[in-house]
Amino acid sequence: MTLLDSMPTDCVVSAWNEWDRLREMVVGTAVGANYEPTEPGSRPQRRGGREGNPFPTGPKPQHVIDQANEELQGLVQLLQDWDVVVRRPSPVDFSTQLVSPDFSVENQYCAVCPRDVLITVGSEIIEAPMSRRARFFEYLPYRDIVRGYWKQDQNVRWTAAPKPSMHDRMYRQEFWEWPLVERHKRMHDFEFCVTQEEVLFDAADASRFGNDIIIQESMTTNRAGIEWLRRHLQDRGIRVHAVHFPLDLFPSHIDCTFVPLRPGLILTNPERPILEGEDKLFLDSGWKLVDAPQPSLTNDQMPEFCQSSKWLSMNVLSLSPDVVICEENEHELHELLSREGLEVLTIPFRGVYEFGGSLHCATWDVRREGKGEDLLG
Ligand code: DAV
């Protein structure tokens, strides 16, 4: 018997990939949300021709919060209709300033996107170190839930990855000043606004494929972070592979770029092809890469304060290998996924875009049926 065979599959926490039949999930909340502050790891910009105007600070307007919460509640209802147990984060006041020995930041962000903070790998919950100051304490809204699982089942493992200092030295400020030509020239260096010294990653840069996890180098994940995850998981036979998308000059989170939908099928971003040679890992194991169609909105049409791209269109959530939830306006994507044999469920979610995420970002899967399998390489 291998180590993997001995891992429990009936554990209250158990999820090995992005697509097996979903049983339990946390859905984010916009309660208490603030605008993301300007800090060394993030320079938020308005959209739609208002780029030069100052970015607001402090709490988001109530009607914006209410709209997102209504859509998040719609997702909760849909999941419950499909017999998925849903839990919600505890309310937190994100308007509090943070002061640490190494940094300070005027306010925090929100609990709309648990995907960025937490990842389930088999029966283990890993809290990501995070990469931005305003998100340093973003694990707190989920702690009651995580502690509950940990108490409920002795097979649950719970790990908090090392917290980085977030000192000025951790960041590369000149990144923000590089002109586009310079970025193109440097695109194969994979150096962004964070340096390589400290361990840091956001959980949403990783994507689970059974006993293999892929994770992209980005503005929110550095090579030390990937190495930490690799060493942490290797004893259990879980392989961690770094992946790269050189044409994405501001990469952050893999779930608008490379999205597995079921064994053998990955939705890819036509404007962000995977680094030459890295496709081999998937193609050699018989996976098909299918480009997503152009999104229904242009980048300029995205909500004025949204810091994510139009590719939130492909941030879909799988209920099972046969059923996927998409934003209701993404008609071309619905057609593509239907042609691939998936049942497509749709809900309104553009109000959540304001907070930088769509259906995958705004959720964290705690339990899916199935167990670890070798699906790559
Ligand atoms: O393509 O803009 C968005 C990721 C959101 N968590 C993108 C990445």
What does this structure look like?
It contains seven helices and 17 strands. The protein has one domain (22-368): L-arginine/glycine Amidinotransferase, Chain A (5-stranded Propeller), CATH 3.75.10.10. The mean pLDDT is 96. The chain is globular, with a radius of gyration of 19 Å. It is 17% helix and 19% strand. It binds delta-amino valeric acid. Residues 113, 116, 204, 252-253, 256, 308-309, 311, 356-357, 361 line the site of delta-amino valeric acid.
Which keywords apply here?
three-stranded mixed beta sheet, 17% helix, 17 strands, L-arginine/glycine Amidinotransferase, Chain A, single chain, binds delta-amino valeric acid, alpha/beta
Please give a quick description of this structure.
This protein is an alpha/beta fold and 377 residues long. Helices cover 17% and strands 19% of the residues. The mean pLDDT is 96.
Low-confidence stretches: none
The level of helicity is 10-25%
Radius of gyration: 19 Å
* Main sheet makeup: 3 strands, mixed
Distance between the termini: 21 Å
Shape: globular
Q: Please, what is the average pLDDT?
A: 96
CATH fold-level topology: L-arginine/glycine Amidinotransferase, Chain A
Secondary-structure element order, N to C: EHEEEEEHEHEEHEEEHEEEHEHE
> Structural class from helices and strands?
alpha/beta
CATH class: Alpha Beta
Q: Got a strand count?
A: 17
Q: How many domains make up the 3D coordinates?
A: 1
Strand order of the largest sheet: 2-1-17
Per CATH, the superfamily is: L-arginine/glycine Amidinotransferase, Chain A
Helix count equals: 7
Bound molecule types: delta-amino valeric acid
Percentage beta strand: 15-25%
